[in-house]
Amino acid sequence: MPLQAPAFLPPPPTFRALPAAAPRPLRARPAGWCLALALGALAAGTATAQTQTQTQTQTQTRAAPAAAAASAAQPTASPAVQRSLQAVRSAPAVQQVLDDLRTDHARAVEELRHLVQIPAPPFKEQRRAEYVVKRFKELGLADAAIDQEGNAVGIRKGAGNGPRLVVSAHLDTVFPEGTNLAVREEGGKLYAPGISDDTRGVTVLLSWLKALNERKLATVGDIVFVANVGEEELGNLRGMKALFRTHADIDGMVGLEPGEGDGILNQGTGSHRYEVAFKGPGGHSFAAFGQVPSAIHAMGRAIAHIGDVQVPADPRTTFTVGKVGGGTSVNTIAGDATMAVDIRSNALPALLQAEKDIMAAIQRGVEEENRRWNAAAKITAEPKMIGDRPAGATAADQPIVQAAVASVLASGGKPTLRAASTDANVPMGLGIPAIILGSGGKNGGFHALGEWFDPTDAWKGAQTGLVTVLALVGVQGTSEPVLARRPPRR
């Protein structure tokens, strides 16, 4: 479902006293509710108990996979797209390229071992970007370079008058500097932080480029190879935002993330993240008691009210207070406190409504703490946006999704449509067709030191993805592009 361009909201103003909102019936709450209750009870002088059964239900609701938003029925491709896909897949020149992916697999795995040991923590991806640009040039993209944001970019020109398609994988991992990145092999699996997410995707880009250029396969449209920065954590999709801000002629995007190849991500879960600073006068816990409000108590009240916010099950919408801090000592009425709030939804209107309700809950907590002590000095809360990922979707009947579905079916797989927050959120939010495909191979332990990748037959996923790409841009003398050209954005 195409959505409007995302709203990049300014930080809300400092909160002042407002009338308390009327309470509403509750739905299943996020896992952070237990912390909210503890802080809220401290602030309000009340105690609340939750049963173990309720807590388990809340946790299960919170942990439901993103795939829950996917279509229940197996997606299908139109006959026209299937014919185009089959023409590409059966072309002798394409068959040679696909076979090269299979025979090159062992070398690609060795490159993966090397690349994963080049650190790429958030905002420090430079060394890995330099390696990728060097490889782009070695493989035939003479004009490859690192752009102003830090993305490694190289363009493989088509024969002309075709669409321009971005194929991408992100350079960054979640692991900080100093993490041991040594690769350990055990039971046929390779263990290393970031090896699947998304180092494997970057090596697949290099394998695609190597196979295409060694076989001199001519495409109708351009393929823009991008190893981008800023996908993880507070990177805030900065790499993709910069790419689409500076390239108005992109017609579509195919990104790579961990997965065997059957999953097709066509829905981008949007998110807004805030750091909220509560500030007040502070004071001695005994001498100033009753004379000043507490920043921590105000935060506790706010968290309790956040826990009461209702969000829809469809579109899937979630929230959590993921981090709290503040205070000076055990015998101090806190003059400062901070919390980090994560709000997500598969649809922009629901995301904005949840954000509005959570901001009102914070206001209410501040108001209640100030009213409780009725002191001259007041608590204020200042939200600062630290993350903005637009929500969006590429409809299942769009050619880019249809081509991916047809490719999975042709390979004997069972395609499924999924939702998550990825680099594809940016083009989706702009109304540009985009999907995320699996880079091939079994994997697990994402964002943990025990992250792993099983390379057994992983080349099959790489083949399925490349067939999708070739169908979209067209193969010279074999097929016309499935992806349409778009008017340049202004």
TrEMBL record:
Residues 53-80 have a biased composition (Low complexity). Residues 53-84 are annotated as: Disordered. Transmembrane segments: none annotated. The keyword Lipoprotein does not apply. It comes from the Bacteria. GO terms for molecular function: hydrolase activity; metal ion binding. Residues 270-371 form the Peptidase M20 dimerisation domain. It holds the Pfam family M20_dimer. Keywords: Hydrolase, Metal-binding, Signal. Residues 1-49 form the signal peptide. This is Acetylornithine deacetylase/Succinyl-diaminopimelate desuccinylase. It comes from Paracidovorax konjaci.
